[in-house]
Amino acid sequence: MAYYTDDFIEEVISQNDIVEVVSEYVPLTKRGRNFMGLCPFHKEKSPSFCVSMDKQIFKCFGCSKSGNVIKFIREIENMEFLEALEFLADKAHIDKSRYVVKSFSKETAKENHNSNLRDTILKINKDTAMYYHNNLIYAIKEKNELVIEYLNKRKLDIKAITKFGLRVCKRKSITL
Questions:
Q1: pTM across the whole model
Q2: 37: which residues sit within 8 A by CB, 6+ positions away?
Q3: Residue 52 main-chain phi, psi, to 5 deg
Q4: Could you tell me the CA-to-CA distances from 61 to 24, 27, 37, 45 in Å, in that order?
Q5: Which of 52, 92, 99, 104 has its CA 20 to 30 A from that of 23?
């Protein structure tokens, strides 16, 4: 799946005149500044489908569908946004490769997200463990009686604490 810049979307819209595109699907007649026709999205007998050349939008006053040229192609051809964008780019002979930001599958995007999330969680866990480990070492160096009594009761010495990165969380009975 490709991701395109906003400039690409703007160029696709500007290079595809909505009146010309809609005229390929719906017979339009000029009425004042706008073009009118029967709506392709629902059955009707009198025209309620309006296309504005000035604003480059369409609006049906019967079913309330509206939008720009990309939205029209999405609705009429039953396409996703990127499919409609590429369809219109091809129609206007626009070089898509100049506007590609990234191209990768949904699976790759999900894997990247999961990997970043995993890395973030591991970093938070490591930082938290280091915080409590440092507090324990500080309490030992300051000869905190409650901490030393707790460690002796558990038969832990400074080598084991350092080797395994042990820590003691703050509790009401232990003040660090």
A1: 0.57
A2: 22, 26, 27, 28, 29, 47, 49, 51
A3: -100, 115
A4: 20, 17, 11, 13
A5: 99
